[in-house]
Design brief:
With about 375 residues, the protein is an alpha+beta fold. Helices cover about 30% and strands about 25% of the residues. Helix 2 crosses helix 3, helix 6 packs across helix 10 and helix 7 runs parallel beside helix 8.
């Protein structure tokens, strides 16, 4: 889960990382009262969105009085900042910046180790800093503490470990005129699977697209909650503008299938992925929500050759939804793995009793090729 800046800074403060004095503004707040509450004349107003590059897209504005603050806040809330929903506006003290550094900790997927990245040149154009000016230091994930003279490195390491983070980033790490070191921004991404270890994690809803979740997205998100959260994953769903429902399995295959769908001129109604051998009831809940979207013209159920996912069990969940919805639009299925013959038999029986327009394929046909069958079926309607 990617956090908003103010959420990341709240976590930073727990580990002794200094952040600017601030107040958070929501759409219904009285900006003048909040400005007076902060008690600082010169402030910066920062759009709370999940993407970067706010400064280059009118998402960061400087003001010097309550009237200007009100006008700037309204402007930020009304702006489309890189297509992102503005969840809030963070009003902060304007810092006297002498230096801007960069500091982050993330995972190096090649070395399979956490890596600390530091540069004495930070800010908006960090991507343009020459490689030779960037320091990298690798750590063992089992280290509770590290040795470093870099400002906030020790604190950020503890934050990274104890918060089950995937990324913790300070850019810029500001050095003020008085020599004070302050995290002027915060980028934090948490491991979604670690929520059961953090009872204090209470974050407002958001999606990877930077907008509020739809009703279906919120409902699907609850599928993997509760005492059976560990039994496979079926709670991934992103709603889109197209009219082809998809039920994919396997991360890499799912992305490839989305590309294949676009290449034949079809538009996905959603992105959905189930994996890790989820039980029948989880898949049924997911499938029912996917099929509940109005205006669908087709359904594509596709995935690679599973290693341990029970095809018959997961198909049974999808069949539960098909028995209930009984869609009239074409359906194409491509899946293989343990119990695939039984799964295909059950799927064919479902099609027969519900008079479904369904074609089913196995591993002998490439996933991407089966979407062509769906196009043909749609065009023949």
């Amino acid at each position: 889960m990617n956090l908003y800046e103010f959420e990341g800074k709240n976590i930073f403060k727990k580990f002794g990382i200094n952040t600017p004095k601030s107040v958070l503004l929501r759409r219904t707040d009285n900006v003048g009262e909040k400005y007076d509450e902060l008690g600082i004349k010169d402030v910066v107003l920062k759009a709370q969105v999940l993407s970067g590059k706010r400064g280059k897209n009118n998402g960061i504005l400087f003001v010097g009085n309550a009237s200007e603050a009100k006008e700037a806040t309204e402007k930020i809330f009304s702006n489309n900042i890189r297509g992102q929903y503005v969840a809030a506006v963070l009003m902060e003290e304007k810092l006297e910046i002498v230096q801007e550094h960069y500091l982050s900790i993330t995972y190096d997927t090649n070395k399979k180790q956490p890596v600390l990245v530091y540069s004495k040149e930070g800010g908006m154009d960090i991507e343009d800093v020459p490689e030779e000016k960037i320091q990298k230091q690798y750590f063992d994930i089992r280290q509770n503490e590290i040795e470093s003279d870099i400002p906030f490195a020790k604190e950020l390491w503890k934050c990274f470990l104890q918060s089950d983070a995937r990324v913790v980033e300070i850019n810029p790490l500001v050095i003020t005129g008085s020599g004070e070191k302050i995290a002027a921004d915060a980028k934090v991404a948490l491991d979604d699977d670690a929520f059961f270890r953090h009872k204090d994690w209470e974050f407002e809803p958001r999606t990877m697209l930077g907008r509020l979740p739809t009703e279906r997205e919120s409902a699907v998100g609850k599928i993997d909650e509760g005492e059976n959260y560990y039994r496979g994953t079926a709670g991934k769903y992103i709603e889109m503008d197209g009219d082809i429902a998809v039920l994919f399995s396997g991360g890499g295959a799912s992305i490839a299938n989305m590309d294949a769908l676009m290449q034949v001129g079809l538009k996905a109604a959603n992105y959905t992925e189930y994996s890790g051998n989820p039980p029948r009831e989880k898949v049924a809940q997911l499938a029912k929500l996917v099929l509940s979207k109005p205006g669908l013209r087709g359904l594509w159920i596709a995935g690679g050759v599973a290693n341990f996912t029970d095809i018959a069990a997961t198909f049974s969940g999808i069949i539960d939804a098909l028995d209930e919805v009984r869609p009239a639009y074409p359906i194409v299925v491509r899946r293989a793995g343990p119990n695939e013959d039984e799964g295909k038999r059950l799927m064919r029986e479902c099609a027969q009793r519900n008079s479904l327009n369904l074609k089913i394929f196995g591993k002998e046909v490439a996933m991407g090729a089966t979407v062509t069958a769906l196009v043909d079926m749609i065009n023949k309607k």
